[in-house]
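Q: Got a minute? One more chain.
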Amino acid sequence: MYCGGHATIRLNSTDTAFNFSSPGYPNGYTNGLNCSWVFQSALSGYHPYLSFDFIDLEETGDCLADFVEVFTSADLASWKSHGRICTYGIRVPRTFDGTPYLKVEFRTDYYQNRTGFSGAVMLRCGGLLTDPNGVITQPKSLDPLLPGTPFGRRDQFEECNWNISVRAGRTIEFTFEHINIIGFKSAGFVAVMNGIDNDSPLLGRYNGTELPSAFGTGSNRAFVQYVPSRTGANRFRLAYREVGIECGGDIVLNAQYKPTVITTPNYPEIPPPHTECIWKVLAPAGQVLWVEFLDQNYLPRSAQCKTEYVQLREGLTSNAPELMHSCTSDLSKRIVTSSNAVSVKYFNDNIDRTSGIK
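A: Always. Here it is, folded:
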């Protein structure tokens, strides 16, 4: 085992644990060590779970000599410390859950040394999900496509909690693709809350075999809790996806030359943050289109036109030729196409919006 490296250990199996220990364990560690291990789950919907089974370090006030320190992080950029450990000959397990990254640091001074520590990291269901869409299921040891679970397996009846976070200004839509949670005395369930934890407003609690209708949150955060049945079936598959502000759409014009007006949400008020609208406009064959922005809308200057902009493309696909990409000036110019199709996109990804479009 290396000491002081920076590689991330990716765990990709729910069936095995990653065992690690201080250098020299159980014969004792040396002076001046600075060791670091970073763990990450390679499986979506799982997080690293750390358990120390033995710790024997030089015990000092505030753990200023030899110590083990555990951190968790959501993005590898900022780490939250869960405190230092410098206990003497303790065999009581100490456990920590990664969210979804977990880091262990081990440091020693140049004086008294002791045995060291040993621990194991395994994958447990639950954790933080930040992808715009995904699927949540029961623990993989209960998946019918995998070999059967031995009796008494740790995660046979393991409860799982997932925190889902999508971009601000979006909501989350849930769809059960399968559910079979049945109990003879006390049935398990899947509960979905509109918020960050178990105390958030309940959107629904689901079990049985009948597929519920699709439902959604009112914010960009959701908390999903799974409590398995101990006397019956435990199978479910819950899909989620990020949902944007409803705007945009397909517009088909006729040959009567009647203009169609499009606006951003809340117009003439400022649209919600993180709004993305795409209108695809199609005219009869042989016709051309003109686009004119009304009310002298202005957009803010932003680096590389990334945080708020209007874009026009000659065609209906995302790689059609670009006619305009504006974020630095007023939108008073009339755009005339050379074909019968145009795409209009409005996008903002910041809190300080200035205006929508019409």
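A: The first strand starts at residue 8 and ends at 11.
Q: Perfect, thanks.
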